[in-house]
Design a protein that fits this description.
The chain has 83 residues and is mostly helical. The chain has helices at residues 11-22, 28-35, 39-82.
């Protein structure tokens, strides 16, 4: 039976580390060293944040498309009622 060595870091902490890498353009290895986190962990956080943003962006774009269709339908109904 093995003992899990995985650590759970608060989300605020993870966001701060990710920000150092992505926003402040710091080297991943330097940030990892500064915050006492493995480079592999920081890499995973950064990769996850990028993929998560892509998924969110896709969902938002789908919602915008649906709303645009609804606006078109409502505009057509309004024109019909005004005639």
């Amino acid at each position: 039976m093995s003992i899990s060595t995985a650590r759970h870091y608060p989300m605020d902490f993870q966001h701060q580390v990710i920000s150092e890498v992505k926003v402040h353009n710091r080297l991943l290895s330097d940030v990892a060293k500064q915050y006492g986190v493995s480079s592999k962990t920081v890499y995973k956080w950064v990769k996850y944040s990028e993929s998560h943003k892509t998924e969110k962006r896709g969902a938002i774009m789908s919602e915008i498309a649906l709303l645009q269709e609804k606006i078109t339908q409502l505009s057509q109904q309004l024109q019909t009622m005004a005639s």
